[in-house]
Amino acid sequence: MAGKFIKGALVEFMPTFLIPLPNVIIFQYNPETMTHSWTQAELVGSQRNAKSNPLAVKGVPGESFFLL
Predict the structure, then answer these.
(1) 4 with 30: CB under 8 angstroms?
(2) CA 1, 6, 11 angle in degrees (round to 5)?
(3) Partner residues linked to 37 by β-bridges
(4) pLDDT (tens digit per residue) in 2-24
(5) How many angstroms separate the CA atoms of 46 and 54, rounded?
(6) Cα 1 to Cα 32: distance, rounded to the nearest angstrom
(7) Which pLDDT band holds residue 1 (cuts at 50, 70, 90)?
(8) Is the pTM of this model over 0.85?
(9) What pLDDT does 26 receive?
(10) Helix, coil or strand: residue 46
(11) What is the largest CA-CA distance in the chain?
(12) Cα(first)–Cα(last) distance of the chain, in Å?
């Protein structure tokens, strides 16, 4: 499957007065040379000490893409 590309898109909806306008970036990538990883969101205050639900973390997890 070397040399085959998959198409992807990043979409961001920008707030406007009446309706959100999409900002679209279209790209191609080779999935054999790309890695994707997540990092856990930071725990704040009482979440560090309490035994809370790990799926109920406040904040956005880190995300990274690497191309070889």
Answers:
(1) yes
(2) 160
(3) 64
(4) 567 888 898 999 888 888 889 99
(5) 13
(6) 8
(7) very low
(8) no
(9) 92
(10) helix
(11) 49
(12) 16
Residue type, 38: W
Angle at 35 between CA 13 and CA 10, to 5 degrees: 15
Lowest mean pLDDT of 1-5, 39-43, 61-65, name the range. Answer: 1-5
Cα-based angle 21, 23, 24 (whole degrees, multiple of 5):
130
Three-state SS letters, 2-31 = CCCCEEEEEEEEECCCCCCEEEEEEEEECH
Q: H/E element holding 49?
A: helix 46-49
**How far is residue 32's CA from residue 16's CA, in Å, rounded to a whole number?**
38
Length of the chain: 68
Q: Which of 26, 29, 24 is nearest to 6 (CA)?
A: 29
